[in-house]
Fold this sequence. Notes:
By secondary structure, this protein is α/β, with parallel strands linked by helices.
Amino acid sequence: MLRTAPVRRFQLILIKPSHYDRDGYVVQWLRSTMPSNSLAAVYSLAKGAGERGLLGPDMALDVTAIDETNTRVRPREIAERIRKNGGLGLVGIVGVQSNEFPRAVDIARPLREAGIQVMIGGFHVSGCLAMLKETQADIKEAQDLGISIYAGEAEEGLEEAILDAAKGELRPLYDHMKHLPGIGDIASPPFLPMDFIKRTIGNVTSFDAGRGCPFQCSFCTIINVQGRKSRYRSADSIERIIRMNWAQGIKRFFITDDNFARNKDWEAIFDRIIKLREEDGMDIRFVIQVDTLCHKIENFIVKSKRAGVTRVFIGLENINPANLIAAKKRQNKITEYRKMLLEWKAVGIMTFAGYILGFENDTPESIRQDLEIIKRELPLDMIEFFVLTPLPGSEDHKVLYEKGVWMDPDMNKYDVEHVVTAHPKMTQREWEDAYLSAWDIFYTSEHLETILRRAYATGINIRSLLPVLMWFSSAVKIDKLHPLQWGLFRLKYRKDRRPGLPLESPLAFYGGYVAGMTRTGFHLARRWLHLKSIARKIEADPNAKFFMDDALTPVAEEDAEHMGLYTQNDAARVAVEREHRVAGVKPNGSGHVGNGLHTNGHHHDEHAHDHHGHDEHRGEATQPV
Ligand code: B12
Ligand code: SF4
């Protein structure tokens, strides 16, 4: 009789944690927004290592990925599973952002008590180690619990950590911050299987085509963690990622690069994607993130269109030049905003702007005034607001930390929705209110109609814009949660409450849960019907495609002397004068550089309409990111 040697199985459980909501319950959904690329990256590296026999012929490597935003994490079951495998295992808590760090430690605590090895990696620990001379208190506390900290990227160090864990000899710290690995053609690029993606909304997955950004915004963590030099995956590697996903039915992708426009190889990557679309017949679509100068890169917008980009996230951040300069965001020029947005409009790609509230010159009144200008003059399809936050890993955080300025010690609040430090002109309450009311000021019923009218007139399929608009305009209003943390059908477990908060009685908990769900369902249905009625009204309006307003006015025809964007305050006037001097524009504002649109003010005529073709945009993924 043949006898096979008993194979020992090392259990690597990778968990992407969530964080706690305002009531201390884990933010969790039946369907969460989108699969985490951090998890995809670490999962794929580990799987690849296992397939290549990392642990030798006698030990197999089982890798499991869990995303807590859509799956309940049960530490006791995980501990049991590892125990059943002879105690061979490691729980890797992955892609842990600052606001997720407290939750990550709460997941780790019972595991450590059960003697399980745990390791935490991601932006919080990497950012702190990159910027601070001493170890931040929360990281030290985690190490005191016996949690191992992994700072830096996993591409070159994960195998060593797994090997150490297999020997039961995990070190308290793995510091890979000094060496940023190449990612060009690695054997196992980011990938998550379909079973996993099914737990998110829509058929979308994510991958990073590159890392790093050359700019120096003071609130940014990316440059200090991933560096300012562009590192990128080869076009071959990108094609592989796309084909692996295509094979499992995934055709929509979120490219997570914070600034794809500064990916040094963007053109080769786009060319390859264009080939896949145009020659190989793969109908693939993308969402990308870019900066406000991307339109100046030759061919970037045109190739984005051909590569199947349907939406762009743009770091607009603010329209007051004084704020932008204070935040070292000098590359953002208000004189370019309209040009850039109109160029995206001209090819029928939806634009989403990130907008930060709480720069040093902001007050509740100035924020209100700025938002009205944006509504009137910038042709944006969507905007999302953030509270300016000294995120660990940023220069802002380092400066405050070193000066000993108060910052809220509760990392769970570093979700860019809470105020965690003082402001020179606003009280904490005013700042928080300004953030919450920004969503109301922007997404009024009237402005939602304007957005849809502009979209219709510029060839965007408003039926595919509707769900995204619904998502971004409703999350904060309905659930006081940022759209990036929202999901479908909230899951809440009475016992998964933040330690330190009391367990509610079943009656209070389930009563509140059902009431909350009913309220959410009601508001969602009402808002959806309302948005649909606006869309029907526009579609029935024979003049809708000729809609024109200040925002859609071509730059060459705009009245720069009167536009609020350019005259809002002294800093804006100075910035405009400076830009005009550089561009050799006469003081009356004439001579603006064209924006690629027809200059007769009717770029939305029949020709343009057909050219951008509503149908081109049909059927795209409706999932917001
Ligand atoms: C895509 C993205 C998202 C996606 C998906 C999340 C994800 N991580 O995939 C979504 C939309 C869900 C999201 C949401 C948010 N995000 Co986000 N997001 C990003 C973005 C742009 C890319 C993430 C990514 O793919 N990185 C590439 C991966 C490969 O890098 P990585 O995560 O560092 O992982 C590597 C290493 O850290 C290491 N590693 C990580 N974990 C582990 C674990 C082990 C065991 C080991 C060995 C190694 C290891 O290996 C990995 C591979 O090299 C980043 C910016 C960035 N450049 O990373 C912001 C970023 C991570 N997000 C940020 C923030 C603030 C948020 C939000 C709070 C915003 C909001 N208002 O909603 C929410 C929070 C969500 C929540 N649960 O509360 C901040 C976090 C800053 C910080 N100090 O923590 C970042 C850095 C952007 C910024 N503004 O600075 N985000
Ligand atoms: S442009 Fe974006 S990614 Fe680049 S430094 Fe500024 S905030 Fe960071």
